[in-house]
Every structure is written in structure tokens, then in C-alpha cells.
Amino acid sequence: MNANKIISKVIKEKGRIRTVFFIGCGGSMIDLYPANYMLNAEASDISSYIYTSREFVLSLPKRLGNDSLVIVCSHSGNTPESVEAAHAAKEAGAYVITITHNKDSKCTAPEFVSWVYPWGDDVKTEYVPVGISLLLAAELIEAQEGFAKHEALIKAIDQIDGVIGKARLKVNEELSNVFANSCKENPFFYVLGSGSAFSQTYGFVICSMMEMQWQNCCHIHSGEYFHGPFEVTENGLLYVIQMSSGKTREMDERALAFLRGHTDRLIVIDALEYGMDSIDSSVREYLDSSLFYAINCELRAARGKLFNHPVETRRYMDIEKY
Amino acid sequence: MNANKIISKVIKEKGRIRTVFFIGCGGSMIDLYPANYMLNAEASDISSYIYTSREFVLSLPKRLGNDSLVIVCSHSGNTPESVEAAHAAKEAGAYVITITHNKDSKCTAPEFVSWVYPWGDDVKTEYVPVGISLLLAAELIEAQEGFAKHEALIKAIDQIDGVIGKARLKVNEELSNVFANSCKENPFFYVLGSGSAFSQTYGFVICSMMEMQWQNCCHIHSGEYFHGPFEVTENGLLYVIQMSSGKTREMDERALAFLRGHTDRLIVIDALEYGMDSIDSSVREYLDSSLFYAINCELRAARGKLFNHPVETRRYMDIEKY
């Protein structure tokens, strides 16, 4: 599949796209977050939204219609809420692209344009949902109104894999054991982040920790931290902070400065120290989430090893009926 | 102030409004959430967004401009991030309405149209930010494209105060002590909710608990619960679930059914049992947040009393420099 060709088809069939809806559940929704974030920051004449699938269906936006592009992501291709959302969008007249790992799934039904992606540690970012959705968003902006950062973004998506490769080594040399051991002493901790990387703040909490490690924790936006959450900060309470490399970084820096003075348990993961300084500063904020995802994977694996709790272990998901 | 008159002025000056941005920090952003939610569900030709103030300024949306209405809420009227956001929006050409409790604040500077609201337990919902923003949104939809639920919403905003009055008594009779005592045994718990009420799921966590009670907890969307977070559920772990009365309720019901079988510590707050059944079902989901806010206030007060931790106590906010 090719983002440029798909967007050409979309525009040929629909004319101008007025609204994009990114739809998924949990990790799949998280993967679409940077594309939604970028569209809203960079497009002057395209609205973009992101919804967890079931809320989208139950509270179907009135502007959803013939001039909408709906991008649904489901790794299994059969997530019931996401399949239902894709059908609801189709019925409303939208152009529906499904992104899935499963070529023989409900998401690859003929009524959808399906992008089937490979999966594994060595698959390049441009071929997985976070990259695919960024590319679709970039091509849409470029096609409809021109996107001055188009080339920079494509280059950044290509470069991020090199950054990630080195970051994996560095995090395992310097941080993974520190983090895993911290979990022994901290039955609960907070994770902070901002910007498009906030998707992986949330993702670290709900996927890597809660789902894969049964570890209690909570996500807080670095900018929101000072409007309530910081009152709970004190020595003995662990904070993990993801420092973005882009425009929202100063929120992370402000939170970090406060945390340094108010807790003795702090883990800092700075995207700039993990190689993001090598990416064009005009677009790197949209790739921070890919870096943090890779780092999150290493951290959860290290915790899994120390706790003898493999990251594949589930007690409810796809085991019980719910 | 009068929402209908303000929106008439907005349209007279700007012509058609294409995009609304709701901007605030913490509790003030939370108050604007139902209006943003309603606009996106009910308007066919108005886009609406909500941002924490600093992220809005740092990642200023390209579509912000002359045809934008920016509604900024700051209780003190001097929240630096929100004041900065109001100025950034004004510079971008938007019509800026500020909603504040402080008539002599930076938010009431002459370049903004300011709505100064009273505050206190007995102020009606239509006069406080959550109601004001809903009314502004309703008037905007009505003026630009017609809003079939306009009258029902106005009536519901009027009725909700009666529901809240009774709910306060009921929660203190039945739940406040149970909740406060639960906090003694649970240094950490989860709060679930959905729809426009999710604003008060988040609000209960970051304002009522973290800020006002130094209580660790975490907010989870009822629909997202099954896509990661539920794996952490087990006996001995406390969950508080806010059951909405509107279209997203079935996500809450699904989460509740699972919780009943997987934890022995569960507190259910059902909007329908607190009087929301008396409100028109086509609009009541937009008022659930007002009900939950009132309940949250009673719950935190009860906890404050039991823990001898008054809800006004702060150790950092407006005390330290940050």
C-alpha cells in the first residue's frame, strides 16, 4: 500500500475531505494519536478527531458524512467495537480506510479500503500504524492545501528507525533495570508527558503497565500537572516523565523542575538524549511517540523479566467473556 | 450576560463561525468539556476542540483564525496559561470570550468579551461555566444551523439544579461515609466513566482527589477499560464507577458487569439513581457532568472530614513558585 495513492483515490472519489476521524481502541487508538495531533496543528482546512471506537458509535458526530475520511485501526482486525465503527462510518457515507495486521479479518471486508501491515521488532515505522496514519495525514494535507513540512516528515519517518535502534540499546544499558527495580518498591506511580507523545504516556500506563504487567499507575499531562495533580507529589512517590523533543517540551521541563524539588523518586526519559536531536525540529514532535513506544517496550520487558511476568501473559483479555 | 445575545454579537461581527476552541486548565477545562462534546455530537457544520491552555499556545492549530470562536475559562481570571491563550487567539483573529469569576482580572481586559460568573453552592448551573459554555454552544448551533434539541437543553439546564439538590442529600445519606472510609483502606483506586461525564471522572481524580485530598487514584474511560486497564483488576483493588444516563451508558454497564465479578471493592454512582431519569433523555447526557461534579464535591468533603484534611488545604498551589 502507498499513502499517496490511497489519498489520491480518496480525493478522486470524494472530492475534498472536510473531516478526518481516527478510530480505534486502546493501543490502536494510541497509534493514531500523532496523526490526529499533526492534522489539527498543521491543516488549515481539515478538521480531525480521535475517538475510542465505541464512544464514536454511540455518540456519532453529526458532521460525519460524505466528505469524511474515517481511519480505523484494529491489530486483530476483529475488535468488535472497531468493526462496528467502520460499518457505522461507511453507512454514514464516509470513505473508510482500515489498518490491520490480519489480512483475513472483518476489517478487510470488501467495503473498506484495507491497509494490512506486518508486525515485529524490525518492521520500519513507515509500515506500522503510527507511521501509516502519519503518512495518510501528511498526504491529505499535501493534496488538499499543500504541506510545507511534507518532505521533512517523510524523511523523519525514515530516520526514526535509526534513532529507535540506538535508543533500545541505550535504555537497556542505562534505564531498564533501574525502572524494573523501581516497580518492586512502588506499587503505584505516575507517568507524565505532553504533545503528541502524550499518546505513549497513556499507552505506557494502560498497555505496557496495566495490561501487560498488572502494574498500577496513572497518566498525567505535563501541562495539567500544575492544575491539580502536583499537590499529591511528595518524597517516596515515583514519577516517570517523558520529555518530548518538540514544541510542547517546555511543559515537560516545567514539570521536571518541580518534580526534582519535590520527590526523591524520579525517572526521566528525555527524547533529546535518545537521539531526537538528529531529526528536523519542525516535525520531530510527531515522531516522539514512536521513540517512546520503543522505550516503553524495553522497560516493560525488563519489568516482566524481573517479576517473572512475561509481557504476553493475560488473565482476562481473549480468555474470559466480557 | 446572556448566551443568545453574545452569540448574536459574535455572528454579527464574524459572520459564520467555523471552529470553536474551548480552552482552560484543570477544573476550568473540565467545565468546558460537555459543551465541546455536545458541539461535536450535534453540530453538522461547526468543528469544536478542547485544549489545556499551554498546549493550545505551544501547538497553535493552523485553522485558528478569523472564523474561530475561542472560549477561555479561568476561575481566577489570571491563570497565566489561559490569559496567554486568550491573547494568542485574539492575535490570530478569533472572537474571544472569557469566562471568569474575577471581574478585575486579566481575563476581563477590554479586548475580550468577558462573562463574569458568581460562585457558591447555590448558584444555578446556568450561571456557572459548565452551564454557560453549554448555553453558548447551544445558541451557536441554533443560530447557524438550527438545533432541534435547543429547548430541551435549556429546560434540562434549568431542571438539573433540582436533581443536584436531591442528589446531595442522597449521596450524604448513602455513600459519602462509605467512600471516605474506603479511602482509609485504599491508598490508590481507579475511577471509571464515559461520554461527556468523563470530564468529571478526570475531574474527580485530578481536582477532588489529587489536589484537594492528596489521594492517589487514576481515571479510566469505561470503553477503554477492556483494551488494557481491566487486566489489573482483582479483589482488594477499589474501583469507583460513574454510570452516565445517556447514550454512552452501555459502556459503563459493560464495565460494571465485569467489575462486579472481578473485584470485591466497588462503589457505583449511577446518574439514573440520582434523578437523571427526570431529564429529557435526548439531552441528559450533557448534564451528567454537572450531577457528578456535585456528587464529587460531597464525596471529597466527607473524605476531608474523616481525614481531617479540609478541601481548601494546599501545600504547593499558589504557595510555592513554579
Automatic annotation (TrEMBL), chains A, B:
<dbReference type="GO" id="GO:0097367">
    <property type="term" value="F:carbohydrate derivative binding"/>
</dbReference>
<dbReference type="InterPro" id="IPR046348">
    <property type="entry name" value="SIS_dom_sf"/>
</dbReference>
<dbReference type="GO" id="GO:0006487">
    <property type="term" value="P:protein N-linked glycosylation"/>
</dbReference>
<feature type="domain" description="SIS">
    <location>
        <begin position="7"/>
        <end position="151"/>
    </location>
</feature>
<dbReference type="InterPro" id="IPR035488">
    <property type="entry name" value="FrlB_SIS"/>
</dbReference>
<dbReference type="GO" id="GO:0004360">
    <property type="term" value="F:glutamine-fructose-6-phosphate transaminase (isomerizing) activity"/>
</dbReference>
<dbReference type="InterPro" id="IPR001347">
    <property type="entry name" value="SIS_dom"/>
</dbReference>
<protein>
    <submittedName>
        <fullName>Fructoselysine-6-P-deglycase FrlB-like protein</fullName>
    </submittedName>
</protein>
<dbReference type="GO" id="GO:0006047">
    <property type="term" value="P:UDP-N-acetylglucosamine metabolic process"/>
</dbReference>
<dbReference type="Pfam" id="PF01380">
    <property type="entry name" value="SIS"/>
</dbReference>
<dbReference type="InterPro" id="IPR024713">
    <property type="entry name" value="Fructosamine_deglycase_FrlB"/>
</dbReference>
<dbReference type="GO" id="GO:0006002">
    <property type="term" value="P:fructose 6-phosphate metabolic process"/>
</dbReference>
